[in-house]
Hints:
single chain, TIM Barrel, two-stranded parallel ribbon
Amino acid sequence: xxxxxxxxxxxxxxxxxxxxxxxxxxxxxxxxxxxxxxxxxxxxxxxxxxxxxxxxxxxxxxxxxxxxxxxxxxxxxxxxxxxxxxxxxxxxxxxxxxxxxxxxxxxxxxxxxxxxxxxxxxxxxxxxxxxxxxxxxxxxxxxxxxxxxxxxxxxxxxxxxxxxxxxxxxxxxxxxxxxxxxxxxxxxxxxxxxxxxxxxxxxxxxxxxxxxxxxxxxxxxxxxxxxxxxxxxxxxxxxxxxxxxxxxxxxxxxxxxxxxxxxxxxxxxxxxxxxxxxxxxxxxxxxxxxxxxxxxxxxxxxxxxxxxxxxxxxxxxxxxxxxxxxxxxxxxxxxxxxxxxxxxxxxxxxxxxxxxxxxxxxxxxxxxxxxxxxxxxxxxxxxxxxxxxxxxxxxxxxxxxxxx
Length: 404
């Protein structure tokens, strides 16, 4: 089948996809913000190193490798990870408050490792946070200027981060970002820290910050960091990209504080399907499984794309269509006839199972795939068992019922 014929088989109402004129970058927050999940455990150093290598394989440009102020274990792991990343394309950054005492240890780390480390200096920006903390805004501006200047004076690339940007006043956002950029910040990060934003709100605040950057220093990059308290993390991140963000933050499986962050895996999947990125994503499944194991995070069976149910069916009508495509020898067709996400793009495949909603084709295909002859009698016996069992049958149950 030609590419033209294939294109004619799917009418895509999603087109035209958004046009993005910059190279999209990704910052993986799994090993910092992700570990703030109340349910997550801190992975071993070996597991963190394996995750960093997978991030690199997936074309992720930067990773937040920890919070130096969190204690000796955090600092030891950061040093080891920074050293490991010397030979990789992915580069490290760390989170620090906008106080010099938080940034000073990073200077020592750079000297020890000989590798640059980006400082992500953060401060709360919303009026509600300022009120709760009893902060003076002029003092906040002084802290921002001092922290970014200190990083700049010590040749540390810096990103200035405003927590809770999506609930902050425009005048104060302007003052904070202008102060940071003028002090030498190379990037600024817009944060939906509490998962408050909607996609339209995201577009507005990112476009507003983009205007500040263009007025102050157009060379400064814009990051977006979003949470999913309202279930909009992924949608907001896509909206931020369209509005002008050039680096997107996310975590494996969306783990993170409270209900979590934007899902890095699903973000990469959607940008690939939208034609915005083109790297090899065949290791995304391994990345998800390792993150789940390393952090003790449950991996739901129905999780999009990488859950065990994503490309599995025991339903007769669905299975029949997939099987017909497979019998044509057309993997492209089989991976799309009943799926909006092509399994083969992500190193996965369609799986046909047998259950109470199955038809003859399910059983025939299942047996053939295991080198068994699907006689009419064998198929009938398996179907009889399937119709009286309130779940998918196991392999041993199917083979036993078939008498094979």
